[in-house]
Design brief:
Elements (H helix, E strand, L loop, with lengths): L12 E7 L10 H18 L3 E6 L3 E6 L6 H21 L13 E5 L3 H11 L1 H4 L13 H7 L2 H4 L13 H6 L4 H13 L6 H11 L1 E2 L7 E2 L4
Antiparallel strand pairs: 1-3, 1-4, 2-3, 5-6
Helix pairs in contact: 1-2
């Protein structure tokens, strides 16, 4: 089957997620998380991708990315997932044992305003929501820890946000998000719908000729 096209336009913000095949745990020890972070840093160096936020969970990860040019997102993600898969198998001597990821990454457009801030809170709050830590910033494998506690070198992985970070952002992340915000983001993740205000979503639908499909909603229509 032909692959469904994606929006891959520069200077837009994307929420990107991928999960382990069968949702099994692939990050067990510190060295597993460090391996992914090292590949992430290499991918940024090669591609120039702006990484705004991220969180690595035991069986999946989230990235918030801000590519500079058309085509950068796909190039970055292809290198990241392929290289991480190869190095993970090499580190664990599991080459030939099957796919590491459940499939291609999923990516969703995000509006650059309060919706962007809500998304970053959602991504960086994941370990707290999963009850892995008592404070979101205690989870070492995220942009929040890196921003709050990382060294100057570690902070270089992260790029400036297109939206000003609000005062008291740390409290904002640790505070339970409103049910409506959480539901809307989870719907975006589940159904692939751009995340933003209705007017902006409609603009994206018109601009990129998006349409719902059975398995991967909100993708560009296939050319006839």
């Amino acid at each position: 089957m032909p692959r469904i096209p994606r929006v891959d336009v520069g200077n837009l913000v994307y929420h990107v997620i991928n999960r382990a095949n069968g949702r099994i745990q692939i990050f067990h020890k510190d060295k597993d998380y460090l391996l992914f972070e090292s590949v992430l840093a290499e991918a940024k160096e090669l591609n120039g991708m702006r990484i705004l936020a991220y969180c690595i969970m035991p069986n999946h990860w989230h990235l918030v990315l801000h590519p500079r040019k058309d085509g950068d997102l796909q190039e970055f993600m292809r290198w990241l997932t392929m290289t991480h898969t190869q190095r993970q198998h090499a580190a664990h001597k599991t080459a030939g044992s099957g796919h590491l990821y459940q499939g291609r990454y999923k990516s969703f457009l995000v509006e650059k305003n309060n919706y962007f801030l809500q998304l970053c809170r959602y991504v960086e709050r994941n370990p707290l929501r999963a009850r892995l830590v008592k404070k979101a910033e205690h989870w070492k494998w995220s942009s929040l820890w890196r921003r709050e506690k990382g060294s100057d070198q570690q902070k270089k992985l992260l790029s400036s946000w297109p939206e000003d970070m609000p005062e008291g952002y740390l409290d904002y992340v640790n505070m339970r998000e409103p049910d409506d915000d959480l539901r809307d983001i989870q719907y975006s993740v589940k159904r692939g719908k751009p995340y933003g205000a209705d007017a902006w979503v409609n603009k994206m639908v018109d601009m990129f000729d998006l349409e719902p499909t059975v398995n991967n909603p909100w993708r560009p229509k296939k050319s006839s």
